[in-house]
Structure formats: structure tokens, C-alpha cells
Amino acid sequence: MNATNELLRAILKMDEEERLRTQATEEYRRGAQTRLTEAARNQEAEIMAAMRTRVDAFSAREQARADERLAKLEAGKQQALSRMEQLRADKREEWVKTITDRVLGREA
Questions:
Q1: Fewer C-beta neighbours within 10 Å, C or N terminus of the chain?
Q2: DSSP 3-16
Q3: How far is residue 25's CA from residue 23's CA, in Å, rounded to a whole number?
Q4: 5 and 13 in contact (C-beta within 8 Å)?
Q5: Do residues 108 and 97 touch, judged by C-beta distance below 8 A?
């Protein structure tokens, strides 16, 4: 009976050791999964930060280009308005005479 008891104790001891190993393995797996998830979150955050930086830089460049284009268009508009104003000042008398002659039926 002693041999049976010793065998039973040995089996129980092996079972307990195996449970501890299984528990340690499971804890390691959970820890590894947690670390992996955290690493993925960190990597995603880094990628998103880099993308935000790139998008902000792109947006700033595009805004500068748009502002430059708008300034050129505004300058062109001002030049056209100035030319029209100068033309009106230069040709006013001539145009009034031409319009008056046509209205009164006189050929110019």
C-alpha cells in the first residue's frame, strides 16, 4: 500500500506541477497578448501622428500655393481695373461724342 501511496503522491505532485506550468504558460500568453496589443496601439498612434504631420505640412503647402495664386489673380484684376479706368478717362469724351452722334442720328 505504501508503494501505491507513493505512486499516488508522485502522480498528484506531477499533476500539480503541470497545472502550475499550464497556469504560467497561460499567464505568459495573456501577457504577450497584452504587450502585442499595446505595441500595435503604440505603432498605430505613431503612424497616425506621422500622417497628421504629413497632412498638416501638405495642407500648409497647398494653402500657401492657393494664397499665392489668389494674390496673382487679385493683382491681375487690379491691373485690368486700372487699365479700364485709364481707358475710360482717356476715351470718355470720344465715347460721349460717339454715343451722342448715334442717338441724334449723326454719323461720326
A1: N
A2: HHHHHHHHHHHHHH
A3: 5
A4: no
A5: yes
Size of the chain in residues = 108
- Please spell the DSSP secondary structure of 46-87, one letter per residue: HHHHHHHHHHHHHHHHHHHHHHHHHHHHHHHHHHHHHHHHHH
Give the chain's mean pLDDT. Answer: 93
CA distance 95 to 103: 12
CA atoms within 13 A on the CB side of 41: 6
d(CA 81, CA 76): 9
Query: What's residue 108's pLDDT?
Result: 53
Coil, strand or helix at 91: helix
